[in-house]
Amino acid sequence: MPASLQITLRDMPNSEALETHIREKVKKLEGLFSHVISCRVVVDMPHRHQQQGKEFDIRIELGVPGNEIVVNRRHNEDPYVALRDAFDAARRQLEDYVHRLRRETKVHVMEHVGHVARISHKEGFGFISGEDGTELYFHRDNVISPSFDRLKAGDEVKFVEEMDAGRPQAKRISSGKHHLPQ
């Protein structure tokens, strides 16, 4: 458990089962990241009009090094479902925090601009001439827009260069006026 775990149940009867459930959820979060400094969970059942039924407000505050993760969720009827949804959101935010901390954020591949150098509609492949003049093979399945059948030699295309079968190839090809960022 974190150095500081605080569980507060407001406007509802004290429930040892609910508190145990919360402790189990917090323990699972700590399995993702063992450096959770503090955790505060508030389960609130504010007074509502009788026709609306019970609504549970859940607030989770996770103290982590250099940051705080806060989740607020409102759910009808069942506090366990409300806790599940709130802890799922907290888990996703904690995973994002850990990825940023470890610098594991997704790297986007660079898009290139070129022209269709040659195309064989009958055979289902073609070649793109890149900015540096090199030609890259592409297959009809790698054309996103417009359809492969509408491409013709000379069309300007945007594409991603990827290794396939040990050779660079053009993938995710789309046609139209595209310009590289300055």
Roughly what is the average pLDDT, rounded to an integer?
85
CATH superfamily of the largest domain: Ribosome hibernation promotion factor-like
Assigned CATH class of the largest domain: Alpha Beta
What can be said about the biggest beta sheet? 6 strands, mixed
Which overall shape is indicated by the principal axes computed on the Cα atoms? elongated
* Number of beta strands: 10
* Low confidence ranges: 178-182
Strand order of the largest sheet: 7-6-5-9-10-8
What is the total domain count?
A: 2
Query: Beta-strand level of the residues, as a percent range?
Result: 35-45%
Predict the CATH topology of the largest domain.
Double Stranded RNA Binding Domain
Question: Can you walk me through this structure?
Answer:
The protein is of the alpha+beta class and 182 residues long. It folds into 2 domains: 4-101, 2-Layer Sandwich (Double Stranded RNA Binding Domain), CATH 3.30.160.100; 111-175, OB fold (Dihydrolipoamide Acetyltransferase, E2P), CATH 2.40.50.140. It has 2 helices and 10 strands. It has helices spanning 16-32, 79-101; strands spanning 4-10, 38-44, 55-64, 67-76, 111-120, 125-129, 135-139, 143-145, 156-164, 167-175. The strands form 2 sheets. A 6-stranded mixed sheet has the order 7-6-5-9-10-8, with no helix packed on it. A 4-stranded mixed sheet has the order 1-2-3-4, covered by helices on one side. A hairpin with a 4-residue loop joins strand 5 (111-120) and strand 6 (125-129). The chain is elongated.
